[in-house]
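Let us practice reading a record.
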Amino acid sequence: MSGQVIDNTAARRFELAMAGGTAFIAYRRSGATLLLEHAEVPVALGGRGLGTRLVRETLGLIRSRGERMVPVCSFIRSFVDRHPEYADLCPP
């Protein structure tokens, strides 16, 4: 799969554009903390692991910027629960 996750600050979402649609994670900012509210993958792109890739790359981008996140979305929360290496991104 090609493409890379970008932070579309105007739309307040991380996006991964692919042939067939754009997967995204919508967020709300509170200082240096991002509340990750909703993740969505177009139906045409489902079943390819795109959601997992989107979350993993989004969390990597957040980490690289020295920010924190709160996984409001159940999909993202479940991902973080299964991957404790991302727990440091959550505020105490």
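A brief commentary: The longest strand covers residues 21-30.
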